[in-house]
Write a structure and sequence with these properties.
single chain; about 100 residues; alpha+beta; about 20% strand
């Protein structure tokens, strides 16, 4: 699935801060141009691309704002990364790869 990305998939990360932003996730792209995109997980889970990018997410460009073409490519990569991440998580739960830590 790496072929679907304009930028290397290895530069994207999903993170959370349950102390200050409980119920939210963030996607961060660590290679230039860098972006931090935070959203409410319950709203974002069923949202389409346009709704997530315009109404739900807080998007911060960390090293200067890229061109519109770069923005679109990066945000599409973020969307694809989130979808792949969720699919992989579901597969791991189905296989029993995650133990219940609680």
């Amino acid at each position: 699935m790496e072929e679907y990305y304009k930028y290397p998939r290895s530069s994207y990360y999903i993170m959370e801060n349950i102390l200050d932003h409980d119920g939210q996730l963030a996607i961060m792209k660590m290679s230039p141009p860098m972006v931090f995109m935070r959203f409410d997980y319950s709203e974002g889970y069923f949202a389409g691309y346009d709704e997530l990018m315009t109404n739900i997410s807080v998007i911060q460009w960390l090293d200067g704002e890229p061109t519109e073409e770069e923005k679109e490519a990066i945000l599409t990569d973020c969307w694809n990364f989130l979808a792949q991440h969720e699919t992989e998580e579901e597969l791991r739960y189905e296989r029993g790869d995650y133990e219940d830590d609680y």
